[in-house]
């Protein structure tokens, strides 16, 4: 009887769980240690970082930007993404009334520190569906190698 | 009886899955409303726009290209879905909504009904 109370999606517990999840999402309290360069949630563009044996993959969620206005640089192990997003909704016209203005506008800059084993000469970047994906290859020497037994 | 119902409830419906609130700009001019929504990572085929009665719902799934063996190290975007709903007023013509998705930005143009558009009333001197 009590089990059913716990599993009903509309129960108090489910509601509390949802609330907690939303709080974590809003304040980034995921319990994991943050990077020293981490910024408060809501920074533009949001960044996700993943790792494969061959490369580090950085995804920057930067919608509505002309790729030619994006600049990606790697300097002494720090990757920097800079760019600008221009407002484009006909504001300034006196016949237009604005109700919501939540989207980011202006210049932005975000930095990511890379691990020591990456090769700054092996960086590639693509822009698709508003996501900038940067692939930084790892040095050959640090990639796992199969050793043949003679 | 009750248990059977619960089993079917276990799989959350898309509308109950956690989702991010996309940021929007909304503006209005004489002929209609323009809505811009940031949906980075959502390809055209994963975007769903629904009008039900006076409610407009935007829902999209993030589908980035991911290589094999990708392990997450750090994530600011932790949910792979966006969802946001708006109520529309009756003077808006929901049958003529124009939607464009480009570089992760959705542009919606919701025109007003012809009869709801402003008319200048001429004052005659009698």
Concise synopsis of the structure shown:
The complex is a heterodimer of chains A (150) and B (126). Chain A is mostly beta strands and 150 residues long.
Which series of helices and strands of chain B comes N to C? HEEEEEEEE
| Span between termini of chain B | 78 Å
Shape of chain B: elongated
Along the chain, the helix and strand elements of chain A come as: HHEEEEEEEE
Low-confidence stretches of chain B: 1-11
Textual characterization of the structure:
- The complex is a heterodimer of chains A (150) and B (126).
- With 150 residues, chain A is mostly beta strands.
- In chain A, 15% of the residues lie in helices and 39% in strands.
- Chain A is built from 2 helices and 8 strands, in the order H-H-E-E-E-E-E-E-E-E.
- In chain A, strands 1-2-8-7 form a 4-stranded antiparallel β-sheet, with no helix packed on it. Chain A has a 3-stranded antiparallel β-sheet with strand order 3-4-6, with no helix packed on it.
- The longest helix of chain A is centred in the first third of the chain and has 16 residues, at 12-27.
- The radius of gyration of chain A is 22 Å and the shape is elongated.
- Chain B has 1 helix and 8 strands, in the order H-E-E-E-E-E-E-E-E.
- By secondary structure, chain B is mainly beta.
- In chain B, a hairpin with a 2-residue loop joins strand 1 (24-29) and strand 2.
- Chain B has one helix spanning 2-10, and strands at 24-29, 32-38, 47-52, 55-61, 71-75, 81-87, 98-102, 105-111.
- The chains are: A mainly beta (150), B mainly beta (126).
- Chains A and B meet through helix 2, strand 1, strand 2 and strand 5 of A and helix 1, strand 1, strand 2 and strand 5 of B.
- Strand 5 of chain A pairs antiparallel with strand 1 (24-29) of chain B.
């Amino acid at each position: 009887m009590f089990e059913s109370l716990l599993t009903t999606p509309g129960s108090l517990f489910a509601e509390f769980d949802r609330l907690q999840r939303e709080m974590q999402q809003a304040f980034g309290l995921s319990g994991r240690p943050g990077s020293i360069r981490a910024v408060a949630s809501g920074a533009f563009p949001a960044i996700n970082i993943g790792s494969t044996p061959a490369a580090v993959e950085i995804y920057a969620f930067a919608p509505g930007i002309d790729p030619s206005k994006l600049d990606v640089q790697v300097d002494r192990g720090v990757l920097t993404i800079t760019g600008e997003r221009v407002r484009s909704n006909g504001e300034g016209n006196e016949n237009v009334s604005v109700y919501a203005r939540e989207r980011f506008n202006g210049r932005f800059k975000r930095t990511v520190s890379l691990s020591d084993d990456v090769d700054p000469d092996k960086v590639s970047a693509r822009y698709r569906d508003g996501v900038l994906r940067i692939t930084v290859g790892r040095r050959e020497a640090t990639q796992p190698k199969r050793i043949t037994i003679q | 009886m009750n248990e059977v119902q619960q089993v079917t409830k276990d799989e959350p419906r898309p509308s109950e899955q956690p989702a991010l609130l996309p940021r929007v700009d909304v503006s209005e001019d004489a002929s209609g409303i323009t809505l811009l929504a940031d949906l980075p990572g959502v390809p055209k085929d994963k975007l769903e726009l629904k009008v039900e009665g006076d409610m407009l719902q935007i829902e999209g799934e993030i589908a980035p290209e991911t290589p094999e063996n990708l392990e997450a190290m750090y994530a600011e975007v932790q949910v792979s879905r966006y969802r946001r709903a708006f109520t529309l007023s009756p003077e808006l013509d929901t049958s003529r909504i124009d939607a464009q998705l480009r570089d992760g930005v959705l542009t919606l143009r919701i025109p007003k009904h012809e009869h709801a558009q402003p008319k200048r009333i001429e004052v005659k001197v009698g």
